[in-house]
Design brief:
Helices cover 35% and strands 28% of the residues. It is an alpha+beta fold. The chain has a five-stranded antiparallel sheet with strand order 2-3-1-4-5. Helix 2 (75-86) packs antiparallel against helix 3 (110-128).
Length: 135
């Protein structure tokens, strides 16, 4: 990682009737949207736990899980994009993890989601001792 970039893990939670193929398709749509931001990289997460016998560790792709590599000042933009994107998709939520901190974006009101994102970014900024504006 360059310039202090961090890795955000985005775990898409489908509706009860969402199958693996649909979840992969939705994750690919989100991946393409995220790449339009100035992030360093967006990859599908590797899932080693459920790999078939004989497969090399890390070969299996985890359906619906993306890893975003981005500079700290882009965290707010990533979260806002995920929140907006999620509103028009058949998903329950997107759980975001960054350095052990998590936030779950769902179908709350726009104002509640904004407050949740602001609190998450502000808490991370306080931990790092940096301004939280992110704009």
């Amino acid at each position: 990682m360059k310039n202090g970039a961090g890795k955000l893990t985005l775990d898409l939670a489908g509706a009860p009737d969402t199958d693996t193929e649909e979840l992969r398709s939705l994750a690919e749509q989100l991946r393409r949207a995220l790449l339009e931001l100035d992030v360093e990289d967006v990859q599908f997460a590797r899932g080693g736990a459920a790999a078939p016998e004989g497969a090399k560790p890390g070969e299996a792709i985890a359906a619906g899980v993306l890893v975003v590599t981005a500079a700290p000042f882009l965290v707010r933009q990533v979260l806002q994009l995920v929140d907006t994107w999620l509103r028009h998709r058949p998903l329950r939520s997107v759980k975001v993890e960054l350095d052990g901190d998590t936030i779950e974006l769902g179908h709350a009101s726009a104002e509640d989601q904004r407050r949740l994102i602001d609190a998450f970014v502000s808490a991370r900024a306080r931990q790092a001792g940096t301004p939280s504006s992110g704009e």
